[in-house]
Amino acid sequence: MSLLKKIALLVFSLLILVVIINVGLNFWLNKKLPIIISEKNPTSYTIAYSILEINLLSKKIKASKLIIAPKTKQLENGKKLNIYSKIESIEISGFKVWDILFNDRIKANTIIITAPEIVVEKDSQNAINNSKNLGSAVVKPFQEIIMVSNIILNRGKLKIMNTTTDKPILSLTNINLRINNIIVTDDLLQNKIPFSYQNFAIKTDSIYYRLNNNYHLKASNLIASDKDFSVEKFEMIPEYSRSQFTKKLDKEKDLFTLRSESIKINNIDWGFKDDKPFFNANSVIIDQLSANIYRNKLPPDDLSKKPLYNALLRDIKFPLKIDTLAIRNSLLVYEEEINFQKGPGKLSFNKFNLKANNIQSGFQQKKLADVAIDINCKFMNHSPLKLNWTFNVLDQKDRFTIHGNVSNLKTSDLTTFTKPYLNATTQGIIDELKFTIKGNDFNSYEDASLKYHGLKVTLYRKGAPEKKNKLKSALTNLIVKNDTSGQTINTTATVERDREKSFYNFLWINIAAILKQIII
């Protein structure tokens, strides 16, 4: 036999051997994988599928039309937890034959999950009762079936339902997710995030999250990575009407309604260290925020001490740092209501722009730069208002300084607040008010200058607010100085802080003290 024929025969024999081995391994894997997935499945879930395809040459496994359901009712800290899922397909690439044959586990490079619909049923309000259970109850069992370095999820849906109320806790639509270079170890399984990764990226069309019994969050076009975050059409909406919310209160409390066209957080560094969270960001930018703050005075006063912002940041129990916070082209409305018959008094801050630098918690800090806040807006939609506010988080006396300037304020614009709240209206123009307030947790000192003209007060009858009280109005206008005769009047004042009231109440009584010194 010639050498050429011998070589050809050898090559042919090798090809036959490869085919036989490939057919044999394919046969073996088709027998082995269902056993790993079902009979030797260590998880608390049954996994069923319609089609299973294995390709040794391309090292790919594809399962189609999967259904995942709990074998029995699961428990999480005594609470029921059930997970159900329908999945269009799961494709595993770069798998290791050896691990399937001898370790009863699939080890691969990448898993691609297409169109999963996941429903999690809980009989508690929290999306996750105990973050460590995420590692022990979910990540670890599936890690015993499959180990992968990269996860890709396309067109997913997730809904977490509270079976007690039959209301969603969390809902995400059209989720697209990628996590690269995943590592899972026994030590990592004990962490808040039960695995490590190099980077991730996620996009969703919409998100709903029930924050607590009083509020839920909604947003669209959420895009996040390990470095950046953005969301559009953000809303934080009360679960109750104003009257319902007020009836639930045992003491005064603000009701918030927040909407924003977009929120962006740039250059994020976050995670957990020694079981404590940390969060750092270069900037947080909130565009076209519409914020409504409502307070009803019917419930009893909240007599607890209200810390100033120095103390609030100083007492945060984890590292937090935001280099720049910007709120742009926004609207803030504060409403306060004595009863539901008169309606609320309203103060508005239109075209509101805020820039704050050096926001940082005091956790484990010895020295910090001052927090500096600049505000520009139109008070009551017409009057330019500028504030410059500085304080240091580590200052145990909670000292702060505010420089302010209000100009061209038509006092009639305050009618939406003074009429329902004070049963009074005013006319006249505050040409310019400048003030500097230097305060702390106990008191403040301020100096100011004021120029105004044409001031006139109208009081209304207590039992008939639509009718003027002409006598009281006349007496009040005898006491009030009508104008400053074209001059700018300078004054100083000192104010004691009511520590059971908020910082903004402290700011207001400082301004009221200035006005009282000059006008009366």
Concise account of the structure shown:
This protein is of the alpha+beta class and 520 residues long. It contains 8 helices and 21 strands. Strand 9 (199-210) and strand 10 form a beta hairpin.
What report would you give on this structure?
- This protein has 520 residues and is of the alpha+beta class.
- Helices cover 20% and strands 51% of the residues.
- The protein has 8 helices and 21 strands.
- It has helices at 3-39, 97-102, 131-143, 242-248, 309-314, 415-422, 470-479, 503-519, and strands spanning 45-48, 51-55, 60-70, 74-76, 79-93, 106-122, 146-162, 167-180, 199-210, 215-225, 229-238, 255-273, 276-296, 320-337, 345-360, 371-379, 383-391, 400-410, 424-439, 443-459, 489-496.
- It has a 21-stranded mixed beta sheet that branches.
- The chain is elongated and about 95 Å long.
Quaternary assembly: single chain
Poorly predicted runs are 8-21
Number of strands: 21
Radius of gyration: 33 Å
**Distance between the amino and carboxyl termini:** 124 Å
Structural class: alpha+beta
**Helix-residue proportion:** 10-25%
Count of DSSP-assigned helices: 8
How would a textbook summarize the main sheet?
21 strands, mixed
Write the H/E string, N to C.
Answer: HEEEEEHEHEEEEEHEEHEEEEEHEEHEH
* Strand coverage percent: over 45%
Residue-averaged pLDDT: 83
Overall spatial form: elongated
